[in-house]
Each structure stands twice: as C-alpha cells, then as structure tokens.
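Dear support,

I submitted the protein below through the web form. The confirmation email said the job was done, but the results page showed an empty box. After a refresh the structure appeared. I'm attaching both so you can tell me whether what I see now is the final result or a partial one.
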Amino acid sequence: MLEKNEESNISAETGPPPSQATEAQVEGFKAETIRLINAERQKNGTAGLKAMGILEDLADQRAREASVLFKHTRPDGTRCFTIFAENALKYKAAGENLAYGFKTPAALVKAWMNSEGHRRNNLDPDFKYIGIGCYLRKSTLYCAALFYTPRKHGVPAL
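What the results page shows now:
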C-alpha cells in the first residue's frame, strides 16, 4: 500500500483577496487545476488523472478542514488518509496536496510543481483518479487535491 503525504504545505498571500466566488467560478477553478495537472503529467510522459465525483466531495471536506487546521492531520487528530476509509474507499495508493491563498489555478499548480513532494504526487503514475476541493474562509481560498487508486481493479460506483 502506497501513501504519499507531503508534509510541507504551500501558501501564497499575494494579490488582492478573492471576492465571494460563485459556484461556477469555483467549479471552473477546480476543472482548470485538474487540466493543468494533467498537462504536467503529459509533459512528463504520465497518463492523465480522471476526475472522480466522490474524491471532489472529499477534497472539498479536506479543504474545509485545512481552513481550521492546515496540516495533513485532520482536526480530530487522525491522519488525512482516514477520509478514504470513512467513505468505503479502499486504496492501493492515495495522496494529498494542500495549499491556500492562491488566486489562480496556474499559480497553484506552478507552486505544487516547484515543491518536491507535491510534484511527486502530481506526477506519480500510481495515481489514477483525482478530486480537487476548495473552500473560501475569510477571503482566503483553501485547496486540497486528493489522489487515489483503488485497491482492486475498477472503481466503486459512488
């Protein structure tokens, strides 16, 4: 079982704070982040990640939790990977990237690509699925990327 867990987190507090983003803007931010990560994977000869709805929901939850405790430990003191088991997702490989304060998907992905552990998660060929989550707290956007490969072939129908 592989677990990729980069303990160094990324933040950026440059530029004006985001306004109250609409749901469409947040969904666009998430989709563009996945597109940019997949572009980096393609440049590095790695197959693209597929978006997975349940992972997006869990990443949204992790982004909310990171706005309270910005660590790969959850506010209840458990490891970030417990979110998979709580949702009946058995994994062969799982990873998490966190960040806050980024105004654009391009700036976010660039920062992750410039951080060894986050880059490793973004490019890891063992990962097959991704979910991007965002949460806005006090004009600061918190982001989480969850990477996942199921333990058995196939994906749960969630």
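Response: this is the final, complete result; the empty box was a page-load delay. Residues 23-43 form the longest helix (21 residues).
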